[in-house]
């Protein structure tokens, strides 16, 4: 890309120079998501890359490595971080404590350093609220079904009661009429 070419030109023209590009300085993530903290550094000599995390819980060194050599990952991040040659790291299984500022320092062998910062916001997906809504909806559906069945039974009972009452009335009226005619 054009940016990479410019960085390479800057580093080659300045003895001992080091440059760093942070394409996405703000990242939003959810709990349990994997996040790539993407950067790209360039320099003439051998560089040392160091990542730190700063939050309200304190400052933690995540990883430090020298291009082409060793990688030193802190015990807190041992199974959760992947490093890349361009200086980027990937954090696996983000948690709420992973929110905060991520600082990268790239130091070239002649002592020249450059810094970058990425802010990571971590959000929790609140399943409890969705669970409550689902249970409430199921409860209301069940109550509605019971009420509909109850109304249907009441309607059937009313029709049966009306038929029985009408039949009795018709029979008693017929008897009275018959009785009246006999009396005459």
UniProtKB/TrEMBL annotation:
GO terms for biological process: filopodium assembly; positive regulation of excitatory synapse assembly. Residues 1-20 form the signal peptide. The keyword Transport does not apply. GO terms for cellular component: axon; dendrite; plasma membrane. Residues 24-123 form the Immunoglobulin domain. Keywords: Glycoprotein, Membrane, Signal, Transmembrane, Transmembrane helix. The keyword Acetylation does not apply. Gene3D superfamilies: Immunoglobulins. It is found in: Membrane. It comes from the Eukaryota. InterPro entries: CD2/SLAM_rcpt, Ig-like_dom_sf, Ig-like_fold, Ig_sub. The chain crosses the membrane at residues 130-153. This is VSTM5 protein. It comes from Chionis minor.
């Amino acid at each position: 890309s054009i940016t990479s070419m410019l960085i390479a030109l800057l580093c080659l023209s300045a003895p001992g120079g080091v440059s760093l590009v942070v394409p996405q300085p703000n990242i939003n993530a959810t709990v349990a998501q994997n996040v790539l903290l993407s950067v790209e550094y360039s320099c003439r000599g051998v560089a040392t890359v160091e990542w730190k995390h700063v939050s309200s819980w304190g400052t933690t060194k995540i990883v430090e490595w020298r291009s082409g050599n060793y990688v030193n990952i802190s015990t807190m991040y041992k199974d959760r971080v992947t490093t890349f040659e361009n200086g980027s790291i990937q954090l696996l299984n983000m948690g709420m404590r992973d929110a905060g500022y991520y600082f990268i320092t790239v130091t070239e062998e002649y002592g020249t350093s450059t810094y970058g910062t990425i802010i990571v916001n971590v959000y929790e997906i609140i399943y409890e609220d969705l669970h409550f809504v689902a249970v409430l909806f199921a409860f209301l559906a069940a109550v509605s079904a019971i009420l509909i069945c109850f109304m249907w039974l009441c309607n059937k009972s009313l029709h049966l009661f009306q038929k029985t009452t009408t039949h009795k009335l018709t029979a008693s009226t017929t008897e009275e009429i018959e009785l009246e005619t006999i009396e005459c």
